[in-house]
Structures are given as C-alpha cells and as structure tokens.
Amino acid sequence: MNDGSTPIHLNAGGTSLVIAVDGGRLPRILHWGPDLGALGDDALADLHRAALPAVGDSAVTYPQPVPVLPQLAEGWLGRPGLVGDADGRRWAPKFRDATHQVDDAADGPVLRTTAVDPEHGLAADFEIQVLAASGLVRQRVAIRNDAATPYRIDSLELALPVPSDASEILDLTGRWALERVPQRRPFHVGEWVRASRGGKPGLEHTMLLVAGEAGFGFRQGLVWATHLAWSGNQVLAAERTPAGTRHLTAGEVLLPGEVVLGQGESHRSPWQYGSWGAGLDDLASRFHRHLRSRPQHPRSPRPVVLNTWEAVYFHHDLDTLTALAERGAEAGAERFVLDDGWFLGRRDDTSSLGDWTVDPAIWPDGLEPLVARVRELGMDFGLWFEPEMVNLDSDLAREHPEWIFDGGHGPGLASRHQHVLDLGHPEAYAHLFDRISGLVGSLGIDYIKWDHNRYLLDAGHTPDGRPGVRRQVEQAYRLMAELKAAHPGLEIESCASGGGRIDLGVLEFTDRVWPSDCNDPHERLEIQRWTGLLVPPEMQGTHIGAEESHTTHRTHPLDYRAEKALWGHLGIEVNLLTADDETHAALARWIAFHKEHRALLHSGEVVHADLADAAFRLEGVVAGDRGEALYAFSVVERPSTWPPGRIRLPGLDDERHYTVEAVHPGSAPAAGAVLPPWQRDGVTLPGRALRLVGIEAPSLDVDRSVLLRVVSAPVAL
Known about the structure:
Layout: E1 8-12, E2 15-20, E3 28-34, H1 41-51, E4 82-85, E5 96-105, E6 108-117, E7 122-130, E8 137-145, E9 151-162, E10 168-175, E11 178-186, E12 190-196, E13 209-212, E14 222-228, E15 234-240, E16 246-253, E17 260-261, E18 266-268, E19 272-278, H2 280-293, E20 305-307, H3 309-312, H4 318-331, E21 335-338, H5 368-376, E22 380-385, E23 389-391, H6 395-399, E24 418-420, H7 426-443, E25 447-450, E26 460-461, E27 466-467, H8 469-486, E28 491-494, E29 512-513, H9 521-531, E30 541-544, H10 558-565, E31 569-572, H11 581-601, E32 605-608, E33 616-622, E34 628-635, E35 646-647, E36 657-663, H12 678-681, E37 683-686, H13 687-692, E38 695-696, E39 704-713
Parallel strand pairs: 20-21, 20-31, 21-22, 22-25, 25-28, 28-29, 30-31
Antiparallel strand pairs: 1-2, 2-3, 4-9, 5-6, 6-7, 7-8, 8-18, 8-19, 9-16, 9-17, 10-11, 10-13, 12-15, 13-14, 14-19, 15-16, 23-24, 26-27, 32-33, 33-34, 34-39, 35-38, 36-37, 36-39
Protein name: Alpha-galactosidase
Active site: 451 (nucleophile), 517 (proton donor)
EC number: 3.2.1.22
C-alpha cells in the first residue's frame, strides 16, 4: 500500500508512467512516454516537485497536474470526468481519501486506487496498467452508488495527459467505401471532440485521436494517442486549457437513463487505451504487439479467402458456386465464404434478414452438398450473417414485431431496407443464438462473416422505449463469445458496411476486421495504411477485387490489385468463372507468393517511409529479427517533378548488409521499360546506407507499384 508521499512509477514494454498519489487525491499522471529507467524515491519525489506549476492567488487558474478523472469540485473547468446526479442533487462529486496499491500482474504492473465521496455516497475504483508485452497504457474506473437514492450517470470520461510538445492533432474521418481519411490541425486552446452516436463506432469514426510534436510522421516526432475499447456510442476528445494543460479523453456517450445505479450497484467504464511512440509506426507497433500477445490471437497461417459476394452477389445456385469453389481451389484459396443470399426468400436486400434458415427453393438439398465439395477441395467453409438486423419483410418481423427497436415512433428510418433486432429481449437473443449455433454445428462452419449495416438511430427497448444501445453492444459481445465457446475453433470477422466496427472491444471476440467495402486498390492503400494504426496486417481482410471496382468504377490491372491485397489477410473477390486463363494463372502466382511470405507479413513490424512528395508511398513489413523485409513503392498521383528520385528503406538493422531486388509475382516489367540500373541485378548495401542514402525509385505510372525484396546478406571479407 502506498502512503502517498512518493509518486508511483509503472514501467514495462519500453513505457514509463509516473503517477502522483499524494494528499488522498485521485491519481495524477506526471509522465507518460519513454522509459525513464530506474528511479528511486528521492528522484520520484523531485520529479513530482519539478512538475508542479507556480500557483498564484487561485488554484482554479492553475489546475495542473489533472487527475485521470477531472473534477469540477477540484477547480477543473474543462471536460468533466463524471457527469451525474440524483434528481438534480449530488451533481458535483469530489472523490478523495484515496488509497493506492500496486500489483505486479503477469501482463504488466497495475495501480489500483479506491476513493470515496462520502457526502454524495459514491465510491470509485480505478485500474491503471502498463502492459508488459507492448508498453500500452490502459485505464478504467468503476463508479458505485452507496446512497439510498438512485444515481444516474450521464457521462464518464478518463483522461491521459500529453506534454506541451504535443502541438498537432491527427484524427480520422470517412464514409462508406472511403474509411480512415486522415486530417490534421493545430492543438489550439479549447476542445476538439469526435463523437459517435450510431450504436457502433461508425465509418466516420476516428478510431484513434493522436497528438504529437509539430510535423510528426510515421518515423519521426513523438506522438501520443488514445482509443476506447468499446463498440458502441463513444467520444474521444483533445483538450488544451488556457493554463496550458493538454490531454486526451475517452468515454462512452450514454443515452438518457442508460446507466442508473441503485444502492450498492456499480458501473464500469470500458478500457481507455493509450499508446505513444517515436513516430506513428512506433505508436502502431504497440497496438500490434498487444493484439499479438493475447492468448486468443489467431496463430495458424491465415487462410486465403474466396468470398462469393462480388462474383455472384445474390444469384446463388449449387452448380455455379461449386464451379466457383473449384476454380478458387485451383488458384490456391483455402477458405470459401458464402456471402449474402443463401437464406429463406433472400433475392435482394429488401427482405428476409432475420430468417436464418437455408432457402429450400435455392438449396433443395440444403447447403450440405456445397459444403461437402468445399471440404473435398481442401478448404474451410464460412457463412455470412447479419445477426443484429432484421427486414420488416421477414417472417421474424411478422411474428415478433416487439423484438424490433422502437424509440416511440415505430421502427424508424430504414437503411438498406433494414432495422435492428433488439438483443435485450432474452427470447430474441435465444432465438438468434439457436439459429446461428444450429447452422454452425450442423454444417461445421469454420468462419462467420458478421455484418452490421444499420446505425442504431432509435434504439428504444419495447415496450417502454428506454434506450437499448449499450445493452445491445453487451449482448453482441456475449453472442460472439457464446458461439465461440459452443464451437471451439470458430472464427468471426467484424464487418459493418465495411470498416464501421473496428475497435479493441470487438477484437476481443473477433479474428479479423473488414476495413472497407471498397476493393479499389487506389483507395485500399490509404484505408489499410490508417486502419493499421490499430490493427495488424493479419487481422485486416484484404481482397483482390474485380478489374473495375464496383464502388468507384476505376479500373486497375491485376498486379496492382493483388499487390495492395498482399499485405493483410488475403482474399479473392474476382469472378473466377469469367476470368481468362492468363488472369487465373497470374492470380495463382500472387497467391503462391503471399503464402511464401505470409509468415513475415503476419508477424513482422509494419513500417512506412516519410516521403517528401505526396505522390509516392513506400511501406513494408520487416521481420522481428531484421533478417528480411518486403516493401512496396507506389505512385498514387502524378508528381510535379520526374523521375521520383531516391527512396530510403526504414526499419532495417544499420549494422547488417542486405540484398535488395525487385520482384514481380504476377508479370515481369514490360520489354523496353526504363529501369534504374540497380533494378536489373539487385544491389547489396548496409542497412545504414539503405536508411540514410537509399536507392533510386522505379519510374512508374500512376496506380502502379513495385515490390522490393530485402534479405540479409553475408559480407565478403
């Protein structure tokens, strides 16, 4: 038990967290970032004193350092940590008399703090942890009501401070088929707030909120970021006060009455995560290491997926899909996923959601013949569901209209002709579990593509109309967990109109995400790049789409489409039944190349070069032992000068020599192509030279790329 006289130093995974715990107050973070090494009590005490500001005649003007749960009653005039009341009373809590204990948990040291507000009859239990495998910081709090009158929580946000060096903010926005678009702004005085209110993070959600040094990039500048591990309504905010305090906050957006605590009842916040790094690559690598360190992280080779959607859409029949499976197996596919259109009455998107029964009109012998053939071909079998959704034109909706969310004005606006099934009804939950589990068990389904296409705009639980969004998220998590428990080995993909539900909350229960419904490689390069701030390559579905994208109507050659899909959990959405032999053979070569290198791609460190010209991209994956790497150089728009000049390769070992060669899994460069001299026979250079001097970039047209294979080479004496 800490007596509060000395700050607490948690350090693990290359991260130091120094926390002031004096005066019975809530924890106040003095330092979050690079490891400070061993610090004795005297040094920690001096560090605390060195961090305190000069205070004049009003402590309200100088609120630093701010508790992880900022409180109005302590003079904090910024975003409040806890907003709540009991019929208009007990609305300005002041937690104090805090006690603190450090536990050396197996996954990293954790500070546990308990504090009370005796006048308001409230208690708070905090957990602040530095994760050993990654150096991520995470924290959460549980609020308990000890008074006789109910206490309503309207918002609960935790804060992570960042230093005054953090002068820029980066966040993400987007829309359908164009997720994860970065935007930057100065870290001005005031609040920059990004909220999601659609019952899931959403296509436009920022995923992370980043603050960093001026001009930070992927390889330069210290950066700090926060993320909320929650798949429902949420808010991330960056705040700078006139006194100079800067911090990042995260919490749920709670609807009226969603959290009302009776006497003795508690509410626990989701985990707020914080990552820092010397550049965005370093920051992202902490999230990647965390996900890869979990016991449930998928460790078997990620099977190459053949998804039926863009090949056949709703047009299902056994002969066509069997032929597609056979062509897929010939190309090297290892998992066949039957997408939307297989269930009762489903001919388009206007009907049948919720009727999870195999349609006998299309499948007179059930799905068993298709599944049997898929397994004969050596592939896993996966099936598409949209469990949380329902069409009004469905047997389920006609039989149980009371299971559809209704905020008091009927089921509300349709989106893609669908509404939301309220899993807060125990009978609805049980019905859904039984239907899905029955199919998984009877067919031996290995994989569920779990879609979620409508926002929860008016999610009132019938018959009283109370908000049901928070309960819906909890029930979705429960459903995923119980399906996996009932069917060991089952894998689940989080898809929500593409990348609308990507967060560390849902990733506790899923094995990959679908970053976007857009397979256009021009867009996918950026979507995957920015989704990669949180999600490692092996958990991102990356598919080779049609020559003409069905979302953008751009056309791209197979080599560019395949190269951009190479970097994640590879899949195919090309209609192999109409592809000519040349295309099929080239596709097979790309799949074989991916299989040859997926151990590297799915375990290595993701790196991005900071190039001066926005027309170019250079990114890759470097093995953990720095023995090999794979990079892609791409031209994404026409540059104002030509040729591109030299590119420098990040992430290698300065002291080792490497052979660099251009590789062409699909088709070789055209005869007569203008190539830099090194590209004809390769080149061998020290890692330091490749990092500081680089190599001449290939001259390419827009939306074209070259793969660079880099292997550690012995040095001739």
